[in-house]
Amino acid sequence: MEILIYGTINSIALALMALGFALVYGISRIPNFAHGAIYVVAGFITWTFLKVVGLGYFLSALIAILVTGILGALIYRFMLIRVRGMAISEIIASYAIGLAILEGLRWGGFKGMTYTLPVFIAGSVTLGGVPVDIHRLLLIGIGVAVIALLWLFTHYTRIGLALRGMAQDERAALMLGIDSDRMALLATAFGSMLAGLAAIVLLPLGNIVVEAGYNVLILAIAVCIVGGLGSWMGAVLAAFLIGFAQILTVVYLGSHYQMVVALLAIIFTLIMRPSGLFGRQKELEERV
Amino acid sequence: MSESPMLHVEEATKVFGGILALNRVTFDVHQGEILGIIGPNGSGKTTLINCITGFVRMTSGKVFFKGRDITGKPAHKIADLGVTRTFQIMRPYYTLPAYKNLVIPLFSPRAKRTGGWRGGGKLGDRDTVGIDILEEIGFERDSFVPYKLASSLPTGYLKRLELARCLALKPEIILCDEVFSGLSMSEIASMVPLIERLQMDGITLIMIEHRLRELFRVASRVMVLNFGEKLLEGRPEEVMADERVKTAYFGSEEVEEVMTYA
Amino acid sequence: MTTADRRKERLDRGIKVRSDGIYALLSWRELGYLVLPRLVLIAGLLLLPLVVPSLYWQRVISNVCLYALLALSFDFLAHYVGLVSLGGALFIGTGAYIAALLNKNLGLPLILTIPMASVSGAAICTLLLLPCLPLRGVYFAIVSLMYPLAMMRIIEALNIFGGTDGIMGIDSFPNHWVEQYFVLIMVLLFLFGLRRLVNLDIGLVFRGVKDNDQAVRASGMSITYYKAVAVFIASAIGCLAGACLTHIYMFSGISLFALDFSILPIAATVIGGGGTLAGPVIGCFILVPISELLREFGTLRIAFYAIILMAFIVFKSEGLMVYGQRKYHQFERWVKI
Prior knowledge:
The complex is a heterotrimer of chains A (288), B (262) and C (337). With 288 residues, chain A is mostly helical. Chain A is built from twelve helices and two strands. In chain A, helix 10 crosses helix 11 (258-272). Chain B has 262 residues and is of the alpha/beta class. Chain B has a domain at 7-89 and 166-261: 3-Layer(aba) Sandwich (Rossmann fold). Helix content of chain B is 37%, strand content 23%. With 337 residues, chain C is mostly helical. The termini of chain C are close together. At the A-C interface, helix 3, helix 4, helix 9 and helix 11 of A face helix 6, helix 11 and helix 13 of C.
């Protein structure tokens, strides 16, 4: 029961981390290696507005999400757009942006235990004999809501449909009058906002540390590869797979192995089924 | 014609995300003949080539090369056996000069086995062989053309380069994916004798083509694909006369042109 | 001198650039035009330890060389094989740990540990990276990014190889002259070796794999095999650097899997000019000393490389070397007529 509950929580957390990355990659085909950095930035902005400026929690969170969205858009508009389509430069540029942000923050003194966000609602309830924080339950709720909203957004709004069109066939989308650069900009902005949201939901469970940026990036990538790069539903399912696998290893082996689980998941996926659980990309590529 | 066919494809089926791209296509190709494959756009011609050469894994079906099962083998192993292909969208190594493009196939295990030059390890050897092959395929040896970067070559030469890449492997069979398309009439006119010479050299050819007139001139047999299914197979004259082919191509000027030509 | 007396020697330079070096036989001056930059580089590198004042800066030179080796391996993989490795630290760490273990546990001398660590480390790295080699796209970058981080965690978790403390007390080079000239000569060897390699037939195959892997497959060659060979070569260079590093600092620990080793070679390559092989070496000679000067800023250095890297890749992606080459070939002289 414990494994079931914490597995679900962990899976939803992973899904939240990964969705942003999957969204950006799915639409603009840019692997956004700055994803983890944006996640951490969101945490710090919330913390700053909450503790230093003294705004309310909800307001700070909102500002943080907006700022990360704008940050994502700026990164795309001024950096990534210039290297889009050049595989080597894309990877290096986004990785460099992420590193610059993270290491800059680290130098700025944002490390240690002092930077924590309070949980939304304190207290805990007992579910089937297992005590669970209310915050973690909220996390499940928010996660499910985000996934549902994303699904609704991409299926029922104009922009969402345009984004899906881009994801499926960029050239065809261009011919239908969808502005590829604008959509990629939007996608990067949305992806960053999702990263920001994930940060605000997940960070109260621990400290805001720079290392979290690297961990989140790696977990997000692992989830996306296992789910199939560019497939959002695949990412959600893969999050559950990796989430439960992680909780099982923590219970039976020890928490040090969590990262190894992610790596092994990637390696196994690449060997067994390179396009991931739901990826169609490889097949399409081969069609010449 | 020998007893065991050169290439035997049995019930080749390919499904792309629910769409039946190829539906149980069966055919034989015999030593030394030219099989033309025609069909409207999207009828699965290129997919068929991709399946045979291992670039795409078939959903079901079998491919035999000289009686040997090559289904599901990786593309490079199939090419190593002598089943080579050209690409519809030309794929030269753009950053290399034309003759250096051939150094890469000449470096392959098959070329090392079958190659008629000594050693092959010394620098420059493959360059010479590469230029020889290019000359054979219609690059003027003494001009600057073979030395130009592939990125600056015109389509006609790129198509030849594609064929040259296959020839470098000393192939048994070449699967040509639209070698005539995108070429001018004069370029095609110079290409046709080339194809005929390849046939005389004993190379079996499968040609996917939209230029029916030229195809019917060189092909010994023609197979028609429509919506992934084999419509019919026969000598060029039979195919031309067939009512079903006309309906499949209905409205296509090219067929009318061919019909009037025939 | 009036303008009538002068003329720009303009035309034949263009021809020289395109005629593949054959014109060098024309005269001593042409020969000089061709070999001068190379000679300057070689002589400059070899003289460097002699002119550098303090022991501290001599150690910096060794560092530069180690990073240069890594940058060479990165440049080779990225621009000649098309594999972007974000994990130079994996090569360094593997090489360093193997050399350290061989030296410490088996008591092998340095002259054996370095080659053994290079070859066996390369084999291990190639094996580790093998799953992502058949695939195109970002997989290689992602997996190579993850390995150094995972390695750190594994060593921490299992507490093997000295755990977080690392392995200490490894033999050092006999003296600092041997140390410096060894790494310098290695850099020169691999620089000119790789430049030669990429123009050999097998080098063309590597470039073919980068340009257009489908055509390589259609030519009956396994791209996975050739990528693996290339990764082996590159990781051998990286592991060599790692093995040297561990002997220079007489220490091997999880800090060797740190980000510095991944990001600095990339930055040096981009600044120096990707695809030139000499550029990354020059980039290292610019970046590493700067980073030594900035030592007091701690991790800000990484941010600093990252920003330089970003600026170069976005705004000046050709790099210094390509720029310099172009300018050198455009170089015109006033001659009397």
